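Quick note —
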Amino acid sequence: MWYRCGSFGLLCVLALLAFACNSLPRVRSTLDEVLADPAAFEDCELIITADIGDVLDRAPLYRERRIEVTGTVAYYGSRSFWTWHIMLADGQRQLRCYTHHYRVSVGRDAETMLLRAFAAQKPLTINGFLRNDGIDIREIVYEDQLVRPDFKPPVLVRYPGVL
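Predicted structure written out below.
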């Protein structure tokens, strides 16, 4: 039980509750709605939903904003770019999505999700901040599963004879 951990355990629980209560509500909207009334979105975690074509056509308006796009995986890997990345496609238009946290490879959970989406050619949703070289990923969603690629799950190593 957490209450047997003493004052440190209680302090940790209270800190987690305070953090959870102070988080802003997440709101999804379009760029046109945000530009029409920016004050309406000040007290929330805003995610602007868009399609890949609109992001590419109006990139200066989306830049440095958190956006969400959906498309199929045309490529993922680390060829011709400084870190691993995903080329998200919507028809003939493609948008690079990456994370700067891990340069060589993505975590196993994200890689498994990307392989499934690539093999099935089903849509994948990515949200993050639009930078000059693509979307800096915060979350990847596929079939109601969420992965945050800035966290790599630890690799569990089992040694013979050790439990």
